[in-house]
Amino acid sequence: MGVTMPFTFRETHGLTRLPGCALQSSSSDLGWTSLFVSTQHESPFEAAVEPLSDHLLVFHLNGPVYVRGEVEDIRVRQLVPAGSLFLWPAGSGFRVQLEASVKTIHLYIRSSVVEQVAASLGYREPGTVQIAPRLGETDELLEQLALEVARAATSQTTSARRYIDHLALAIAARLIRINSPDAFSGVASGIQGLTAVQLKRAKDYIETHLNEVIRLLSLSEASGLSVSHFTRRFKVTTGLSPHQFVLSRRVERAKRLLKHTNEAIAQIALCCGFSHQEHLTHTFKRFTGNTPGRYRQMIRN
Known about the structure:
single chain, alpha+beta, Jelly Rolls, Arc Repressor Mutant, subunit A, 42% helix, 20% strand, globular
């Protein structure tokens, strides 16, 4: 893949060496060149780190916990449930404060691997694809890929390195997909999709106002587009209308709350922006095939 030096702890931010961090596993001695992964129990900490040349993805395996994050001009403090992702891009220093203990996966991917995949998709100039920070978001595909990389780190087979290189290509492709959607959809359809910045602004607005009425005008203004342009470009980028996307995010938040809290279903409905419990139940069943009560029972058994 063009990189021959093993990816070891020396090339990471050193977060796993902080007091109270109990390392469980890592790929440091496995000779991997495209990815580095570690799993650990992290105690509360606060740290400011310098930029590195590779991208860091952090996945929370349990929770929820409060996290403060600051990168570039983005600052957040939010309750982060299990399955959430923090993406700290190459070339950007960041600050992070963890307010309670949590189990995590740290996954580093070489920026050169991302550039290689970008070039194969037609982005010939280095740096054309800009990887944006993502703080406390979810991406089920990246999460599953990270879990598979973590599992592979416990394997002693000689084929693991080749397998990891293929997983690195898949992770790079996904990062490009969520940051430059036109690489896959906008060009093919003839309709330009949202830029990475516009998509992030729309998603941030949705997550921030998920418990409120989200009006299409407000959402399009957050992305700096007219309603008509925003609606077309949003569907090209995500495959969903803004309304369907908002509903899907509300259902996902409801699933997290049903799993990780003991809140009454009626209260969860309001927290997720549904007008009442019956509205949540109808939408939830349409998306998942189960009622909220049945889902809670199944996920906890």
